[in-house]
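Figure 2 data, in text form.
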Amino acid sequence: MGAPAPVGDDRLVVAHGLGGAQDLPIPPELAIVGATAALAVSFTVLAVAWRRPRYADPAAGRPAPAWLQRLVESTAFTWLARLVGLFFFGWAAFAAVLGQDLLTNPFFGMVYVLLWVGLVPASLLLGPFWKAISPVRTVNLAFAKLAGSDPDTGLRRYPERLGYWPAALGLFAFVWLELVYPYSTELGPVRLWFALYVAAMLVGGAVFGSTFYARADPFEVYSTMVARMSVWGWRDRTGASGIAAADGRDGTARELVVRSPLANLDRTPPRPGLVAVVAVLFGSTAYDSFRDASAWLQLTQSLDRTLAIALNNLVLLAFCVVVGALLAAATAAYPAEGHPRRALPGLFAHSVVPIIVGYVVAHYLSYLVQTGQQTVILMSDPLSNGSDLLGTGDWSVNYWLAYHPTFLAVTKVLAVVVGHVLGVVAAHERSIQVLPRRHQLTGQLPLLVVMVAFTAGGLYLLFAA
């Protein structure tokens, strides 16, 4: 992600490269050893005390207050969320089309900070946030109403074999734009990327209906996946269950419930492309730290610019491929009852979601809090002409996190460790559901080794950035 760069009035704007070591006054060796020990202890405790599935009951959860369910299912609430999404989209388009090509243009912060990073806490707290506010869903709904068609069905059935592959490609396209494209802070290319995104989403929604957004919209798939770590879920009267209406409504009477995030996570559908999605998200976050390491910076700065760009492209791709390959190899090491080996990576891919969330917190917490505030300030001046259209132009950024480096360091390390521990728990639950009894513990060892490697490598990169 981009580190803030100072401008003349002491404000911050989005540029590239978020540092890490300067606000982590904890010995990296201590953090890595402690995190590895935490994973080993967690696995040992699970092996002894957790021998039966705990999240297999689809009716699990406590009913939410009736007034809350009425609120979230009301037409007024639904359209309020849609209007929020349309306002965000419209304001970003206003700044992108009519604003100046300057780093102070709020379009960059709205895209790289509020949308990309802010999507994680919003989805953790509220459920599938992007689905609720998605401007492309709203525009598709409007077109369908004008045409007298059903926005949920489209013209053709979405091919099951595609699964989440379009979303994985879209996510990779976005992280490529953000992390390795040399003109990622120029208005033209970013504006073009989102124009192509909107066009693809509207065409796909018209052809395949709402299922297209649930499977192919990179931001909705990301948001819904993170939302599986929220406490909100739905269950219907027949016992079927899902997370916050993530897969759409089927007309069944539903009940809003509060339950363990791990129970929601366990219900992640193992569709094609799920491994690719988690590999892109995890691999790109790791690459974001790697590219800021001093040794890598020295190497790329010593090379010809074209060669350095090509090398960064290859390394980003390699990070994503390696994460996916390690996950696939570790989860397919042992046979499962009733499941071919090729299906096992998809069955276990959900266990990487807590790790992704942990790394997002570790890498982008201070970036979101501080540069996010700056973006809200800059949004009041979308044309960079000194206007204050939203009344936020005279706000100031609170740098509390920057002034408390120890708190920030502990929070970041804990985020990585807790994310991996929850990943181990999720993988253990899935192992005792699908692996033969004789392999329920040994079958987890390859994935545990991979998670230990992810932990050590992630913390090393966090400190090296």
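Caption note: The CA atoms of residues 286 and 457 lie 9 Å apart.
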